[in-house]
Amino acid sequence: MTIRLLASAFACLLLCLRVSAAAPPNIIWIVGEDLGPQLRCYGDKRAITPNVDRLAKQGARFTRAFTHAPVCAPSRSGLITGRYPTEIGTHHMRSTLLKPPPAFTTYLRQAGYHVAWPGKTDFNFSVPKDSFDTTNDWLRRTPTNRPFFGYVNIGVTHESQIRASAEQFTKNTARLKAEERQNPAKVNVPPYYPDTPEVRRNIANYYELVTALDYRLGEILERLNEIGLTENTIIVFFGDHGWGMPRGKRWIYDSGMRVPLMVRWPGQIKPGTTRDELVTFTDFAPTMLALGGADIPKELSGRVFLGDKADPPRKYVFAHRDRMDETYDRIRCARDARFKYIRNYEPGLPYAQRIQYMDEMPAIRVWREWNAAGKLKGPQKIFFSATKPAEELYDLQADPHEIRNLIDSRTHRKKLSELRAALDGWIAETKDLGALPETELIARGLVADRLKEYEVRKKTPERNQRNQTTN
What we know:
Elements: H1 3-20, E1 26-32, H2 50-58, E2 60-66, H3 72-81, H4 85-88, H5 104-110, E3 114-116, E4 148-154, H6 159-162, H7 166-172, H8 197-226, E5 233-239, H9 254-257, E6 258-264, E7 273-275, E8 279-280, H10 284-291, E9 317-321, E10 331-335, E11 339-344, H11 362-372, E12 391-395, H12 413-430, H13 438-443, H14 451-458, H15 461-465
Parallel strand pairs: 1-4, 1-5, 2-7, 2-8, 3-4
Antiparallel strand pairs: 2-6, 5-6, 9-10, 10-11, 11-12
Helix pairs in contact: 5-10, 8-11
């Protein structure tokens, strides 16, 4: 063989090696705080979200994506570890796990990824040192030549911003045009709220903040184009749980646990795709590891839902509600594509227990006032019942607001038995720590003792001044 032929053969071999060893994709997470699926691309005509809608058209829009916990820290602890909070001890809001498991980003780093996670963590534990390469704002400079995982948090839709001062709200929504403002008189009020100016104003504020988020998303996407993170980059956009309105955030109704989820992956996901399978947040970690070519630890709780290593679709998603700041409760649910089963382990506790932070929202304050005045009607009164039913069952197709409890329906007995068994299986499989008193978790050295600070909250003058939840 001549030297020329040898050189040609060697060049072909190198080319084949390059093709077979294509660079792993970059992965970008963009997370909106307290962001439910109140978006135009999800059929909400009140929403003004052109950049979100454009992103949805460029990839896949998931219609049944859910958090496992409808409040930030437990939700995010499951995202970063790939484990249910009830498995590892991060299920109580504002608890502190003392020996957390590895973050999935640690495994990505071991597979060669550069991981940048600036801004919000809020995992109910201190971040292990090997979780990230940097916490600097990577959007300000081009990332390294290594495969890249980047995180962006958009906080403008957070609960606290719905009820922010007029000055702060004006600042948050400064870029909105006149036609992008919301008329409170025209917003849709869920049937479980009293229809008051305060409730309507809070809902209108939320929608305007969603548009402000949309502006920020447009900036981020443009910046990704500028720094060359488009073609070989997977963008995952989602909310960390449902909207920050009362009976949304903190509750395992769909208003608290259903989130928007969009994935853009040029050349791999067909633009304009709609996917209806069930996805939960514990699926995110194994999916990112699979996409990055990393090994998936057997301890992870979820399934892979993207790429050529995708697992079969799941039949159920599960969620939990435990202590919310200073207020204890324990609730679990199992949901399939249509029905949801909820188990209240503390039926003697009312839904409308006080949470100091939550009670700063005008909507919940006026709801309490109407209850005290005897003005609530129909579904509005359910939230202020003196006790909860031990079990709840809802047909999400016929009753998306989850206000008609079918637990005694003869027609739905088979579905009830199925979902009861599914929840029992999940609780047993994950060894749900929620059955243990928090004092026991502290005694075992699993979590830090923060109970005293929450006892102090219960005794604040503001809380005591408005102490009654029911007439």
